[in-house]
Amino acid sequence: MKRVNTFEVVPQIENDKECLLRLLDASASLWNELTYERRQSYFGDGDVWDTSEYRGRYNGVIGSATVQQITRKNSEAWRSFFALKEKGEYTNPPSYWGNEDDGRELRTYIRCNQYTIQWGKRSRLEIPVGQELKDEYGLGYHERLRLEVRGNPKWDGKQGRLELEYDEVSDTFRAFQPVTVPDSRLDSRKIEDFPEVENTSRFRNSPLASHEAALDVGANNLVACSTTTGNQYLYDGRELFGRFRETTDEIARLQSKLREGRYSSKRIRRLYRQRTKRRDHAQNALVRDLVERLYDEGVATVYVGDLTDVLKTHWSARVNEKTHNFWAFKKFSHRLACVCEEYGISLEAESEAWTSQTCPECGDHEETVRHGDTLTCPCGFEGYADLTASKTFLRENSDCEIRPMARPVRFEWDDHNWSGKPYPHESSKEVRTNPKVASVESA
Ligand SMILES: [Zn+2]
């Protein structure tokens, strides 16, 4: 089975960063040149496979192996385009990395046997660059560009083609490393297959997955999560939404100043793109942070509310707008599904009707009142609404025993990470126990 390791590449000196940027920029240029030529052929009834021999020009910067890799990746894109077209599916021919306004999307692909990653206290990645770059940046003839990496490889196996990309908004380099994991190793995470825990492989040492989690997805709190291990997480989106709003206001201001007959400008389009990029970045980081956390806890199943359900039942029009534009709920669900699959966690969409209004103490959902972040019930219950909802949702779907809940952790976005603190808002009615000392074991 194919899995993907994702990590950050962190050049330690400006020289290395510049060298890496040059490599990615030249790669994007090669891709775009090739794409341009093939699109010309395609729309002009020519043969897309018949390309000219200009690619050697890139060898000096990128190195011939990477030139080949990018060419191959481009050909794959065209092949799958033709395959889809043949099946009668609507699809567009492969497109450029980036555009004229925004510049290129900086990215490259490194062949599986051309790079090495060493994981350790100071993990590092080595990738080849062309002779020209070596000369310019002081690398020896046989040397490769050596870069520090941060992150944890989740999967161990035969390494595939490495993808490297630069995210301009957050000024970070990210790497995606596909690995082929033997099927048996994936199975090993199931407790019934491997009762003996003292295996040496990282996967056998990983927490045995038998726990479950439920998510409540919202507009202010992007995600509230409860797990059967007794943990609660809250991802606060207010700060992020505030910034989204600011950009939206700026767009409106610029639009009001446009000359008559004009409806957009370069600057406006740029702001729109920036707004989307920021949101996507935070969203992807949230999904990854959450799923990694759940994986480490040994969660095997995640319950999430059914989308149509969520949008229909208890969301006002204003909240809906917030979720569609700002939080892009569909995109979020898709991302969540992908990352869960990557970690071998199964994601189940269930109806969550009433869960946000149900009292966890007496089960009532008609007399309860939700005010701001708090849910109160005539029976005396008072608790944090979204967290309570995720716990109720978990209880409705899970057959596992649910451990008493620890103090929730609240995460805020700081432009790069979701950093968490114990949540101070405590409800007196809910039992708070350290899950580590709880004696209840899940089945
Ligand atoms: Zn009640």
Automatic annotation (TrEMBL):
The Probable transposase IS891/IS1136/IS1341 domain, residue ranges: 204-310
GO molecular function: DNA binding
Record has NADP as a keyword: no
Any Pfam family: OrfB_IS605
Domain of life according to the entry: Archaea
Entry keyword set: DNA recombination, DNA-binding, Transposition
Family under the similarity heading: In the C-terminal section; belongs to the transposase 35 family.
Identification of the protein by name: Transposase
Lineage: Archaea, Methanobacteriati, Methanobacteriota, Stenosarchaea group, Halobacteria
